[in-house]
């Protein structure tokens, strides 16, 4: 099923990120900002995180992709969202939505409804979040839906991809799912097929997680090893790990 | 004095947290959010950190306990506080106040005054913060007062507890005191006696700190080891360390 | 050129920080808050990070120095800036500006223009940021301009200092430049010559970075080792590393 997503293809997309160094503008929650920025840097991309409605479009204008993560959304972040949507629409810029805890908040559900109207939207959430969004997503043709878990499932216009990498410790560290959404955005900045882009990002993230788990003494040391592993991931490692 | 807080009792409260996996809704400062969330996850609890006044009550509604930490309070966070107080009052949900730097800010003192009106409130601060609040606390019957330091002192309706665990490095890492307040909240979600709940949380936190200090090369590596130690703390370790 | 900035001079300024334990009030971006606070603590200083316009001047009033960092500036942070400028002006308190991504945001450029009117202002940015500010800085007599990079260049009223310490990994971890600005502020709290203060801070920071690079397996573990190295930096190490 993943014939089109072998180690060579993943390595090629990662190499394009490392060469192009795309900036990913992240309107993201304050809990995950730091680990998200460090993960993007380790991946070869550049983070920017402006949130002020009066500057967010200026700062995001030259970014290669945009991430909107609804965790700890603030009133100012809420006002920044339409600016980013307008920019993404006008420039055809890739945009990834991470609907953190959307199942708990009617406010986030309303914001997600607006965001999902963007053509070509990519959404990454966990099982509960994606289930809560299912009725909206059913009415969103052309969206790429990514449900992460023990096996990540990517439903893209170009087909279905499943990624079976990663480690349970990844659910014990805050912000890692959020950071993986930023990696998906970074790959979307260099690869026009969002299914392949998401597949490459989540394969790299999952394999870095496997390596980190072998080196960690628990959830405290895990994120550090994950970032180190991501920064040194090469095609040989991908080949070995992807079998 | 701590006859009722031996290793078996502490282990029993920790086991209830690990089994019930209570969600702790944290309205907390942006400096400490990440380490607080990771500490709660290592403890077996689930963090949520919404702050927007239009959603904070929705997100906190099904949480097992609430933490209000006044560090980096924002105008929106200020407006979120009454929503959380109303929720805690209506549901009888445990609420912990962490009055960061209250001695420096008349705004925080006013907010603390409102929060302390909540029946059954639990307050954890350092010596300076608790001293600044002393006049207010004197007029707050039924409150549980926790002053942390070289020896943590817990004055609860059920009695006095003193915890002599921990390490000086814990004062050299930002957000650890804030995170300990979140652990107190997690224990309050499963243990109705706030004195015992706070005692169990601070014993676990202090012992994890002792273990981390033995493994750390300085304050940079300390938090990581603390989280690793907290995630693997078991009754045998508690027994050994509590003598 | 740096005859006045030998290891003994640097050690003397660091010792004054460790003894006076100045509080540095940081109005800084939410991405860098945690690493900035931990770096200040490792340096022997105390961080405070209030941002609410109704309390920021109260909290900063007794601080030894102020940092204003424009990253992730919020509407409330924008309103806090004039309160901090008024305080710095009234008390003659040192103030450091970190103009993150000022080249991307007309809003930040306007804010920087206001801040640069403060007599004795110290500015630290990377090459792109300092170049964008060059026209404003040309009209700012008495300012200290710090351009960090492979070689840090400090142009102070008392002369020119160049610091050739550090490691490329320092650009791969988010918030380290921001944290270095906070260290400059901490030194300005104890040393009246901002050129010497900045030189001492950036020498310590750069040498800690060199030590960290020798101990790190990548950007994930780098910040931890940098903070450990900063916390244990002594005159003997400075002497060896400064040749």
Kindly report the average pLDDT value of chain A. 97
User: What radius of gyration of chain A results from the CA coordinates?
Assistant: 16 Å
Could you tell me the strand content of chain A as a percent range?
A: 15-25%
Shape by Cα distribution of chain A:
globular
Gap between N and C termini of chain A: 15 Å
As laid out across the biggest beta sheet of chain A, the strand order is 2-1-3-4-5-6-7-8
CATH class descriptor name of chain A: Alpha Beta
Named CATH architecture of chain A: 3-Layer(aba) Sandwich
Largest beta sheet of chain A, briefly? 8 strands, mixed
Give the largest interface pair and sizes: A-B, 29 and 32 residues
CATH topology of chain A: UDP-N-acetylmuramoyl-L-alanine:D-glutamate ligase
Question: What proportion of the residues of chain A is helical, as a percent range?
Answer: 40-55%
Q: How would you classify the helix and strand content of chain A by structural class?
A: alpha/beta
Q: Could you explain the architecture of this structure?
A:
Three copies of one chain form a homotrimer. Chain A is of the alpha/beta class. Chain A has a single domain, classed as UDP-N-acetylmuramoyl-L-alanine:D-glutamate ligase (3-Layer(aba) Sandwich), CATH 3.40.1190.20. Helix content of chain A is 51%, strand content 15%. The first copy, chain A, has ten helices and eight strands. The first copy, chain A, has an eight-stranded mixed sheet, with helices on both faces. In chain A, a hairpin with a 3-residue loop joins strand 6 and strand 7 (152-156). In chain A, helix 1 packs across helix 8 (194-215) and helix 2 packs across helix 7. The longest helix of chain A has 22 residues, at 194-215.
């Amino acid at each position: 099923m993943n014939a089109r997503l072998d180690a060579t293809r993943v390595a090629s997309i990662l190499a394009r990120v490392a060469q192009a160094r795309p900036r990913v503008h992240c309107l993201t929650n304050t809990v995950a900002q730091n680990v998200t920025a460090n993960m993007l840097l380790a991946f070869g991309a550049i983070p920017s995180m402006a949130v002020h409605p009066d500057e967010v479009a200026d700062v995001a204008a030259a970014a290669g992709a945009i991430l909107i993560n609804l965790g700890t959304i603030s009133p100012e972040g809420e006002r920044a969202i339409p600016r980013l949507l307008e920019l993404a629409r006008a420039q055809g810029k890739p945009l990834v939505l991470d609907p953190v805890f959307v199942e708990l908040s009617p406010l986030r559900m309303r914001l997600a409804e607006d965001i999902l109207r963007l053509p070509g939207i990519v959404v990454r959430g966990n099982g509960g979040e994606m289930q809560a969004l299912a009725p909206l997503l059913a009415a969103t043709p052309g969206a790429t839906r990514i449900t992460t878990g023990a096996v990540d499932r990517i439903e893209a216009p170009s087909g279905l991809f499943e990624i079976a990498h990663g480690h349970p410790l990844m659910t014990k560290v805050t912000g890692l799912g959020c950071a993986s959404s930023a990696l998906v955005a970074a790959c979307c900045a260099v690869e026009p097929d969002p299914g392949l882009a998401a597949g490459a990002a989540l394969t790299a993230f999952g394999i870095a997680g496997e390596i980190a788990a072998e080196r960690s003494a628990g959830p405290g040391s895990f994120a550090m090893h994950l970032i180190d592993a991501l920064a040194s991931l090469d095609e040989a490692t991908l080949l070995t790990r992807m079998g």
